[in-house]
Each structure stands twice: as structure tokens, then as C-alpha cells.
Amino acid sequence: MTERLYYTDAYLRAFTARVTEIMPPGGGAAGGVVLDRTAFYPTSGGQPHDLGTLDERPVVDVVDAGASIVHVLDGPDPSGGLAAGASVAGEVEWTRRFDHMQQHTAQHLLSALFLEVAGAQTVSVHLGESCTLDLDAASLEPDLVRRVEDAAHAIVFETRPVSVRFVEASEAEALGLRRPAGRTGTLRVVEIAGCDRSACGGTHVRNTGELGPVLIRRWERSRGRTRAEFLAGWRAVRDYRWKHALVGEWSARLTVRDRELGDTLERMVQETRARERALQDARKRLLRYEAAERVAAIPAGPEGRVARLVFPSRDGDEVRALLREMTALTPAVVMAGVTETGRVWSGRAPGAGPDLAAVLARACRAAGGRAGGSAEFAQGAVPPGDAVARALAAAEEEVRRA
Ligand SMILES: [Zn+2]
């Protein structure tokens, strides 16, 4: 059985302990070192495990195995060559641990305030690269979220103590826990003075002042509940920093005040949309002119039964649109291809004429590709390059013979 030093002192970073057992790998577990006491927090209760070292060997994972805690060491041997009975010095990577303490305590605070302000119970928690609360609420109004944030900061600024006590489950009810513990025996109760009492085995800061900013980053509906992403402490400072830099940089580039940035971007988006629409209209008109010009160039008589266009490179949708415009103006069969992409098309006006899907399919197959479509409009693909012109020439041959 491992004594969990973090239960009574979350600020303990360095400790000595004795190896009581070496767990061999197996059954899906990595194996590792069991100590008689440890300050390393194992993954549990939604809080990620600590990192650090045991006798300067990196600890890569910490596993809660019930009564004992398994320290997985880096390298091919997860026990790092340590033997039972050895005395080791452990050191917890403090930046990571303190970050978890800040996020975890902020989670208690926010869960208590969402319940108090919005009547929304926390049903699950995730603390990782992003930290989230799943709230038993179908939706959240922005105003309510701001009230929760304000209430959280009022408590942060009051530097309220966060304490730990051990009580029997039977006594816990009288204390009033935020959520029923749902288990018997001794409970570890974490209390934010005057705000929250929860049964929890995690690591927490000792007063709310150590949380720094506590912010709801975003929230969204998820299966009848609301998932709120939050961040606290250094994370919140870093988040503010990059956002502030972004706003600063773009305000400077657009030469507006930072508070005007939103309106300026909105205007730019509207202008871009209007320009896009105008450009599309102009392209359509231009294509109609091009179609008329190309149709006018088709010779009269039997020679003009087929027109063939090969473009070195051109947008496929535009070529399709051009063919549609041309076949609306001429009874000729129009074929087109793009050398760069290997794509080919063939179209004609409704009425008399060969089955273009069949014609193009044969021509493309012969050129190492394939095609499909309808009797009046077919499309295909052949290897990019010379095959395009070859396929179109073969298709033209067949149309002329028909
Ligand atoms: Zn906790």
C-alpha cells in the first residue's frame, strides 16, 4: 500500500521513499515501481498524472492501482533497474503539477458557482490540454456565464482558504457536499471556504488567490447538456497574451483601435462577399461572350459538326459552363479537355446526335482513362498530357463517322 503524500500536502515536490515492489509489464499495463510513499499524483478523477523523476530517472506515467501507485519509468525497463528495498529520491515536475492544481481547483469553484447561479450540476469533468465541465443544462446564456465568471473572481480576490479534511461518509451528509459521494468509508473532503465542499482525491491550491484568472473560454451544447471549456492561472494568462498580441497586430495592420477591430473585420467580410458576387456575375457574362465568339468561329457545313477545344490549364467548372453556353447556341457537338489535369468533356444540344457518353467512354478507354455521363453531356479523365488531345481526336473521329 502506498501512502499518498499529496493527500495532506499538495505542495510537496521532493521526497524520499522505499521501493516496495517491482511490477512486471503485462495484462496491458506497462509495469513499474511501487513505493511505500509518494508525492506523485496518478491519473484519476479527471486529473492527469504527474511527471518528474525517481533517482533522476524520468517518470513517464503514474498509475493508480487501487491500494498502490505504480510509477512507470522511461526506457525499455519501466522499473528503471530499481530493486525492491532500494531507497529513492523522488521529484515532482512542479510547473505541470501546479498547473493541474490551478485547473482542478478552478473546476471546483466553477462547478459550485454554476450550481449556485444557474442551478446547473456538473456531471463530468475533463482536465487535460483543454479543461471542460459537462453541465446538466440544455443551454447557457452569455450573461449567466459572465455572472459565474464574476462570482469566481470575487472569490479569487478574497483569497479564501482551500482546505482538506478526512471524514467518515456517514458524517459527510451533515457537512453538505455539492454532490453525494456515493461511497462509504473515509472521505477526503476539499473545501473552498464559504463556497464548496466536495469529496475529491485530487490536488488543489491552498487559497483561491493562487488561481489567478478563472475564465470560461467557450461553451457548446452536447447531447442535451452544455460543455464549458475553462482555463485558470498561468493558462489564462498565456491565453490572454496570444489573443492580445493577435488583436494588437491586426489593429496595427488595419490601422484601427483594438475595440474597432470587430466592426472593421465585419465590414471587410461584407465587402469581400459583395466583390465575390460581382466577380461571379462578371465571369458569367464573360463566359457568354467567349461562348458566342467560339461558336461564331465554327465553320458552316459538315466540317462544323464537331468543335474541339484543348486548354493547357483551366478550371474544370468553367470549362463545363463554357460547353453548356456553347451547346445552347450551336447544334454542333463540342468537346473540350484540359492537358494539365487530364479531364475531358463533351456536350451537345438536345435532339439528334450520337450518345456522347458511349463515344467519350470508348475514346478515353483507348487513351488509358474512363468516362461517363449522359447522351448529351459526358465527362471523363485520361492521364494528363498528350492523352487529352488523343482522346478528343478519337472521339471526334467517331462523331464524324456516325
Ligand atoms: Zn478536486
Describe the structure in your own words:
The structure is a single chain. This protein is α+β, with helices and mostly antiparallel strands and 402 residues long. It folds into 3 domains: 90 residues, Beta Barrel (Elongation Factor Tu (Ef-tu), domain 3); 144 residues, Threonyl-trna Synthetase, Chain A, domain 2 (Threonyl-tRNA Synthetase, Chain A, domain 2), CATH 3.30.980.10; 105 residues, Diaminopimelate Epimerase, Chain A, domain 1 (Roll). The protein is 36% helix and 28% strand. The chain is built from 8 helices and 20 strands. The strands form 5 sheets. It has a 6-stranded antiparallel β-barrel with strand order 2-3-7-6-5-8. A 5-stranded mixed sheet has the order 16-17-18-20-19, with helices on both faces. Strand 17 and strand 18 form a beta hairpin. The protein is elongated and about 100 Å long. The relative contact order is 0.07. The model has no long low-confidence stretch (mean pLDDT 94). Bound molecules: zinc ion. Zinc ion (ZN) binds next to helix 1.
User: Any idea what the radius of gyration is?
Assistant: 35 Å
Low-confidence blocks of residues: none
Strand order of the largest sheet: 2-3-7-6-5-8
The helix/strand series, from N terminus to C terminus, equals EEEEEEEEHEEHEHEEEEHHEHEEHEEH
Distinct small-molecule ligands in the complex: zinc ion
Q: How much helix is in the residues?
A: 25-40%
Distance between the termini: 90 Å
Structural class: alpha+beta
Instruction: Give the CATH level 1 class of the largest domain.
Output: Alpha Beta
Envelope shape: elongated
Number of helices: 8
Provide the β-strand percentage band.
25-35%
| Average pLDDT rating | 94
Number of domains: 3
Q: Count the strands?
A: 20
CATH third-level topology of the largest domain: Threonyl-tRNA Synthetase, Chain A, domain 2
